[in-house]
Description:
Layout: H1 8-17, E1 23-27, E2 29-30, E3 35-36, H2 39-49, E4 53-57, E5 76-80, E6 92-96, H3 98-106, H4 116-123, H5 134-150, H6 152-173, E7 177-178, E8 186-190, H7 197-207, E9 213-214, E10 223-227, H8 234-250, H9 260-273, E11 277-278, E12 285-286
Parallel strand pairs: 1-4, 4-5
Antiparallel strand pairs: 2-3, 5-6, 7-8, 8-10, 9-10, 11-12
Helix pairs in contact: 1-2, 6-8, 6-9, 7-8, 8-9
The protein binds pyridoxal-5'-phosphate.
Amino acid sequence: xxxxxxxxxxxxxELKKHxxxxxxxxxxxETSTGVFTDVKELAEVVHENSDAVIVVDGITSVGAxxxxxxxWKLDVVITGSQKGLMIPPGLSFIALSEKAWEMVExxxxxxxxxxxxxxxxALQNGDTPWTPAIALIVALDVALKMIKDEGLENIWKRHExxxxxxxxxxxxxxxxxxxxxxxHAVTAVYFPDGIDKKEFQKVLKYxxxxxxxxxxEHLKDKIFRISHLGYYDEIDIVGVISALEMxxxxxxxxxxxxxxxxxAVQKVFAEYEKIEVKQGGNDEFLSCCH
Length: 290
Ligand SMILES: *Cc1c(COP(=O)(O)O)cnc(C)c1O
């Protein structure tokens, strides 16, 4: 169902019904609905109940969510250059387990350009079978250095923190969230009732320079999505929530006070930074130190 993650029980039941399943495909962070799926748990269920490989679309999870391919026994993980790696589109990356490589070796489906066997062979010489997008590989080199400097674990933590701040900010404005459990890469939010959605997105885009994508298919006019994947920091989030407040106020949504969302965002950051924050005057003292 759109907006929620598949459960391990559901996967187990399907595997019991279909004994000949060869591969289970799962999207780790589902970008169109903002849903996170626990692939670690699913991999256990897949391996306990079948000989299938588990293939993970990690396109918006790589760089946003904790992911240990070998430890979690994931067979295939895929990502793209244009998401957590922060560079333009044009490169894709695929990693395979030994078990998946055995399937590649045995596969007799016709293939030429997308031959993983050819790619693996070329890789032994640090090369690719065909001419790759060289400019993007140079960009990737810089992106990977940035990732190394910040530290992958720190990057995961940053995404957790920024996504939590966006959710808390939206809730404080009175907006309802879509997508459960939520992804750390993107937050899907219901449009509030009774506003001109097009006008709201226009104000955000042309007045405040913030583009939020709508939903897809039947969710097109129901949700909008705020990205916080890759090159984002705390002040970007303060900015987006602040702009959201202004744009909503401008289109007549008045179930909040300006600053409610921003305050909630700052409170999340303060908790992470273990900063003691005073809110609402001197008598109301909030300690965020644990
Ligand atoms: C972006 C994305 C893709 C790839 O789609 P493109 O059209 O190549 O951008 C696939 N899966 C997920 C989860 C994505 O976020």
